[in-house]
Design brief:
Elements (H helix, E strand, L loop, with lengths): L9 H5 L1 H11 L20 E5 L6 H14 L3 E6 L2 H9 L5 E7 L21 E12 L1 E6 H7 L10 H5 L9 E4 L7 H11 L6 E4 L3 H13 L5 E5 L4 H4 L6 E3 L19 E2 L10 E2 L5 E8 H6 L1 H9 L4 H11 L6 H14 L1 H17 L22 E4 L7 E3 L2 E3 L1 H13 L4 E4 L3 H9 L5 E3 L6 H4 L3 E2 L4 E10 L4 H4 L1 H9 L2 H25 L10 H18 L10 H36 L12 E4 L4 H7 L5 E3 L2 H9 L5 E5 H9 L6 E13 L2 E2 L5 H15 L1 H10 L13
């Protein structure tokens, strides 16, 4: 997006004090405000940093955490919090700050009737700085190719049934607009737009879990189908589908919002939106500023933090790029921290200016930065319901027809029925968020293709493993053709360097032998003519016949010297022929062994694919085997089928399922399962659910219901996985 504020320069730094004064003028600190010495940097209390439930905002929180650490603060968190809970706690001084406020979207949370926090900052919380000024956009997108082909100019064009049909993925003739989660505030706004723009009869808003719905949308786009969806920035979708290249923003025909927020309609017209069909662009939604929100009493004790937040700015494109990487291969907590560290170093000039301004502000207030060593902690009470968080990983977890399925989901439903409970399932896009949601109590159970590891046991608990899986090798089952099979193997070996060297040695030996027998026999034996040309030819024939038939031939030496040499050549021929035969046999044997891939050791020197966010990359790296990482297993499958890869190493159960379904006849697993690990349901540490779920799993195993489900998904003779229960 182009509407980014300029990076802070010298002038902005000189005006930092004026900016801070202006902020305080808007939200003045009480003259008699008491400063709790424990809340200052040297007072022993860490900064209580929060972050939102949407993991697309965790990047900014990690940057601020690291910058606070550079200032010398100890940081508690970032702790993930629901939006309403954060605004209540920050107003009550129970948490210090976060950098994920969206305004004007969050304005009501700063001005609730009866709340001590007010919009002008007169209560317990205050907005600070502008990370992204007007860059948090919302609107509608469609693939650029379909828009251009149909001449679409605004959303109103979708009232034409022929235009709408181009985005129909269900076959009902209506455009399928991927919309908002059922509990998101944008859903009613989308419905309002469909009504006022006359689209109710031609467009359906598809509501469900946004993550898997958008992943399916990306897959449809890559398959060449038309796509239509609601989105917002920053968001990983605009990293996968680039505005102006892959997709375009479709303007609203005119500004219109529901009556309760109609005063924001003028704000929905935005200048210079990259990838929009019009400029200015009628987005249909008011853009938001992304700003920090902090406790007023905390800022009073820590002017350095306020100065830091006033200077902190980050380009929307940087956030989107990190979000995109998080959905592929950098979604662990350590990955987010590493990405933030790289960003800080790449923007070190700006960062140092912000930090210098922070130190100056603190010293100007007569305070000193002298905190203790860094520390971190996180907390959160479990919700206490069977709210289930998952992540798509067919065949364990799938999302089709607006409902979740797959082996792990069906097993969970059997367990829930067994214990008399219902489940509410939602999906996230990263394993880090899945584990974090369980750890902080946002979900009671985590389900997916999540292996039980010692590292994860530090954060959450697992039930007993319900399936024994591991890694396996997938190879293409191709017809090699005439020259790719045995005939090709023979041809390659006959013209190999080693075999040609053996032939050369044999020819030289025969030539020397031919000259020796000719020189000894030419004057006394008519079988070997005196003339060199004729004699050598006959001698070569004798040498070849003698070496290969152990002396049997139509020419024999007559003289004593010739016969002695003939005996020598007979025995020498035995050794030469045996050596030559062994060389050919070895060449064919080595090729057969080289062609076979049955275990990890066979992967050395091969083109091997892995999925980045899986156990395979680490395992192969420990074995010293290089591999090409792919964001998804689907892309790795395609690379294998296209001949770009010789092998694909992935979860055994997932590979078995692919072989039995989409990959039938084109691929096959090779060798045994290795690097075995168990999968279990994830629960909060010390949760009472652990024992309840374990008892139910054992009951299902003992009753045979588990085996029936396992056979349904992986086959009766599947080697990819099995139950891990009592024998």
């Amino acid at each position: 997006m182009r509407h980014q504020p300029p990076r802070p320069g010298i002038l902005s730094l000189l005006l930092a004090a004026i900016t801070m004064a202006a902020a305080i003028a808007v939200a003045p600190l009480p003259a008699d405000a008491e400063i709790d010495p424990r809340r200052t940097p040297g007072g022993g209390e860490p900064v209580r940093l929060a972050r939102p439930t949407w993991d697309t905002g965790w990047f900014q929180a990690e940057i601020i955490s690291q910058l606070l650490t550079e200032l010398g603060y100890r940081v508690d968190g970032p702790t993930t919090m629901e939006t309403n809970a954060f605004y209540g706690d920050v107003a009550a001084d129970e948490v210090d700050l976060w950098v994920n406020g969206w305004f004007p979207l969050h304005d009501p949370l700063l001005a609730e009737p009866g709340d001590s926090t007010t919009a002008d900052g007169g209560g317990g919380a205050i907005r600070v700085g502008f990370e992204v000024r007007g860059g948090a956009l919302q609107g509608y997108m469609a693939d650029a190719a379909t828009v251009a082909a149909l001449g679409i100019e605004t959303l109103a064009d979708l009232a034409d049934p022929e235009v709408a049909a181009a985005f129909d993925s269900t076959g009902d003739g209506r455009a399928d607009l991927i919309g908002c989660n059922p509990d998101w505030a944008c859903g009613p706004i989308v419905d309002h737009h469909l009504e006022v723009y006359g689209l109710s009869d031609t467009v359906d808003q598809v509501r469900g879990d946004y993550g898997p719905l958008m992943q399916a949308t990306v897959d449809r786009y890559r398959a060449g189908e038309g796509v239509l969806f609601y989105t917002f920035t920053p968001n990983w979708t605009v990293g996968e589908l680039v505005p102006g290249t892959d997709v375009v923003w479709i303007p609203a025909p005119f500004p219109s919002l529901p009556p309760e927020i109609a005063d924001q309609e003028p704000l929905t017209i935005v200048d210079q939106v990259a990838g929009c069909l019009d400029d200015p662009c009628s987005m249909g939604f008011a853009p938001s500023d992304i700003r920090a929100v902090a406790s007023r009493s905390f800022l009073a004790a820590n002017p350095s933090v306020q100065a830091l937040l006033e200077g902190f700015e980050i380009a929307l494109d940087d956030i989107s790029a990190q979000n995109a990487s998080m959905t592929r291969d950098e979604d662990a907590a350590a990955d987010i921290a590493a990405y933030a560290s790289r960003w800080i170093e790449e923007h070190r000039i700006d960062v140092d200016r912000w930090l210098a301004a922070a130190v100056e502000a603190h010293e100007a207030a007569g305070l000193a930065l002298a905190p203790g060593p860094g520390d971190a902690a996180a907390g959160g009470d479990r919700l206490g319901t069977l709210r289930v968080v998952t992540r798509l990983a067919p065949p364990f977890v799938d999302y089709q027809g607006s409902s979740y399925g797959g082996f792990s989901i069906e097993l969970l439903r059997l367990v829930a029925s067994d214990i008399g409970a219902d489940v509410e399932i939602y999906a996230v896009n990263s394993s880090a968020k899945l584990i974090d949601d369980v750890d902080r109590g946002a979900a009671a159970i985590g389900v997916g293709a999540v292996a039980i590891t010692s590292e994860r046991e530090h954060e959450v608990d697992f039930t007993q493993p319900y399936i024994d899986s591991g890694l396996q090798i997938l190879v293409a089952d191709r017809d090699p053709g005439l020259f790719g099979g045995r005939l090709g193997s023979v041809t390659r070996n006959l013209f190999s360097g080693n075999l040609l060297a053996l032939v050369l040695v044999l020819i030289v030996a025969m030539t020397l032998s031919a000259h020796a027998i000719w020189l000894t026999e030419r004057r006394k034996n008519p079988d070997f003519p005196v003339s060199y040309r004729a004699g050598i030819w006959e001698s070569l024939w004798w040498a070849a016949v003698t070496a290969t038939t152990v002396g049997y031939g139509d020419k024999t030496p007559k003289g004593t010297a010739g016969r002695i040499f003939g005996l020598f050549w007979m025995f020498s021929g035995l050794f030469l022929l045996a050596y030559f035969t062994a060389g050919i046999t070895t060449a064919f044997t080595i090729e057969e062994l080289h062609r076979s891939i049955d275990e990890p050791a066979d992967l050395r020197g091969r083109s091997v694919g892995v999925v980045a966010d899986s156990a395979a990359p680490d395992f192969l790296a420990r074995q010293g085997i290089g591999a090409v990482s792919y964001p998804t297993d689907r892309e790795a499958y395609e690379a294998l089928l296209d001949g770009e890869l010789e092998a694909f190493v992935h979860n055994a159960a997932i590979l078995q399922h692919f072989v039995a379904t989409d990959g039938r006849g084109g691929v096959d697993v090779s060798g045994l399962v290795f690097a075995e690990r168990g999968f279990g349901f994830i629960v909060e540490t010390d949760s009472e659910l652990t024992e309840i779920l374990n008892r139910s799993l054992l009951s299902l195993i003992e009753s045979g219901r588990f085996d029936a489900l396992h056979e349904q998904w992986f086959g009766a003779d599947s080697a990819a996985g099995g139950r891990l229960g009592p024998p």
